[in-house]
Amino acid sequence: MVGGRGLGLRTRRLYLPLGFFLVATLFPFYWMFVTSIKPNRELYNAKIMPLVVHQPTLQHYVDLLSQTNFLTWTYNTMLVAVVTTLVSLVLGTMMAYPLARLRFPGAAVIAIGVAATYLVPQPLLFIPMSDVINRLGLGNTLTAVMLTYPTLLIPFCAWLLMGYFKSVPRELEEAARIDGASRFQAMTRVVLPLCTPGLLSAGIFAFTLAQNEFLYALIFLTTSEVRTVPVGAIAELIRGDVFYWGQLMAAALLGSVPVAVVYSFFVEYYVAGLTAGSVKN
Amino acid sequence: MRTRREFLTVTVVLGAAAALGPRSTGAAPKSMSVLHESSFIKAFDEFFVKKLALEYEKLTGIKINYEPVSVGSLLTRMTTVAETRSGPEVTATGFNWPWLFEQSLVDVTDLANEIGQKLGPWYDSVTDAVVINRKWKGLPWGNIGQLEVYRTDWFKEVGVTKFPDTWEELLDVGRKLKQKGHPFGFELGHGWGDNHGWLYPLLWSYGGREVDRDGKTVLLDSDETARAVDFCRRFYKETMLEDVLGWTDVNNNKAFLGEQISCTNNASSILVVAKRDFPELGRVTDHALNPQGPKGRYHLLNPQSHSIFTFAQDVNAAKAFLRWLYDDRQLSAWLVAGDAYYAPFLHAYDNHPMWNPEPRYIPYKESLKTSRLPGWPGPPSHAMSESMAKYAVVDMFAKACQGAPTKEVIAAAVLQLKQIYKAK
């Protein structure tokens, strides 16, 4: 057992480090929370203790929800994140499986190409990508980002999933084939269920990346009604050299809730996915 | 589609049709878009959306879409629009941006002349920013000025009732105020405006220049620059909070509103927020022109203008919209909604009622006569923007404040500027 039996030893080895990590992890959320419920008078007062709220107010939340399109931005963000995650997972799996499992000429080059594609910086791509989107007549629509995010996410998912597919013993799949399963059935009924933690890891990462993406959203989504949270909040809550700190923090806090919920549902699979292969029996 | 081949054929044909299909019907546009940076004055944006755009649609049937982007994002959007030749017809610009996108912007000299005749003449200082090869590439609507913002009550505590006229006098006052626990806070970090807003005027007021009129000869290495740098070091050490070296434009607002500093260089945003959220502070906040140095008094020019992209579906329709927008009836009301945050470049507005409700904004109007673009007297070129983006002048002053010798910081800045201006 971690920390041994004695209370003192246990405190030193378990509770103290655990407490430290807990504080470090939750502090940003606490900071966002206290900032979001402070009146402006307290926000700007450098003489009072910044971690305590003296006169809490929900005014920033009221203003955020009543004076901006925050709920629309949240809906747009969720829609885009869910669609792009699903598309990226399906296409990423279709790319990763043959690269990990099948032997064909050029497989290694393609695998390197996948990694290289993921590494191309966005600032190099946004102008040509914008040209394509405009030619398709998709400017200022959510479809624009639903089409462009997978260009980042598919290579990422494929790259991540290739590792998981390789960790599944070939013998399992071969046994299925001997029992009469087709290649597709072997993949969907044997390999994919075994790779659930990997799929979840890739899915959560893809979801988070899609939710936070800024540059393409800034370029393609130009009116408030179609914007996502990162672009909408910054466009409307940062005006000149004045930041609406309370509303910004309220938006950040509310915006991070969906991801926290997703993580909490899948945390066990997610951790299993991250650590798969790290310990051999 | 029964086979993969059919699917691929249909996809390719549809893709080609989308790519090569007609993009313009030649008919009058049903709508046009105007790209803007979110205004610090929310009412300025709202007036456009809720009043001007609706009125214009009622009048002409053309819907005007207002596309605000956050501060710092407008150049990215403009670049994309100019490179892909697709997007909004009209865009707002700042500083020397019409020079950066000159090839993509329509000549609006005819409009500028019309407006100048009705409401002008235009201020001379603004032509540097928007007139390129004798062609107007933008129609300025106002300057976002950078002035001294100070606490009148704390200045009175050290016997000062009128803002100091020279940098040396300000240093003297600042020294006393810092001793009383009310330091100054002038940005020396990598923000986007409040650093250049006082450091270029300081340099110019001591006679220092970044580059000559030819845009190639770097002039920074001079006794005048050295004197400005020496002054800045003393000014920082004897009057300011230490952390100004890491500040961006947000920090001095926050420090002033948090009653940590007694003086800074800023636009009028501090007073606007103070009046709204901290009325007691608003009553003791005032503005003043930048102090003068041995070679004069200067301010930074940041003209906000409207330009039309050359690929606009109907350039004449876009021009007609701007002609309507710059008519006194519309422009006047819009500027009033802007709460005098933008100082207009048309002399007809010198005594406009917009200046009456708050006389403390008047110095922003007065500063137009002595305002220059960053890099002045050099031409407002790409190199000038690069110099600004790389903080060549700001870092020269900041390094001196950190303790580096004057000669060393000037030499480093000169080396960087020579690379930027391709000078030998």
Structure description:
The complex is a heterodimer of chains A (281) and B (424). Chain A has 281 residues and is an all-alpha fold. Chain A folds into two domains: 7-57, no CATH class; 60-275, MetI-like fold (Orthogonal Bundle), CATH 1.10.3720.10. Helices cover 75% and strands 1% of the residues of chain A. Chain A has helices spanning 7-36, 40-43, 59-67, 70-101, 107-119, 122-135, 142-167, 170-178, 183-194, 196-212, 215-220, 229-237, 245-275, and strands at 238-239, 242-243. In chain A, strands 1-2 form a two-stranded antiparallel ribbon. The longest helix of chain A is centred in the first third of the chain and has 32 residues, at 70-101. Chain A is flat. Chain A starts with 6 loop residues before the first helix and ends in a 6-residue tail after the last helix. Chain B is α/β, with parallel strands linked by helices and 424 residues long. Chain B folds into two domains: 31-144 and 302-362, Periplasmic binding protein-like II (D-Maltodextrin-Binding Protein, domain 2, 3-Layer(aba) Sandwich), CATH 3.40.190.10; 147-300 and 390-420, 3-Layer(aba) Sandwich (D-Maltodextrin-Binding Protein, domain 2), CATH 3.40.190.10. Helices cover 47% and strands 12% of the residues of chain B. Chain B has a five-stranded mixed β-sheet with strand order 2-1-3-11-6, with helices on both faces. In chain B, strands 8-7-9 form a three-stranded antiparallel β-sheet. In chain B, strands 4-5 form a two-stranded antiparallel sheet. In chain B, β1, α2 and β2 (63-69) form a beta-alpha-beta unit. The longest helix of chain B is centred in the first third of the chain and has 19 residues, at 42-60.
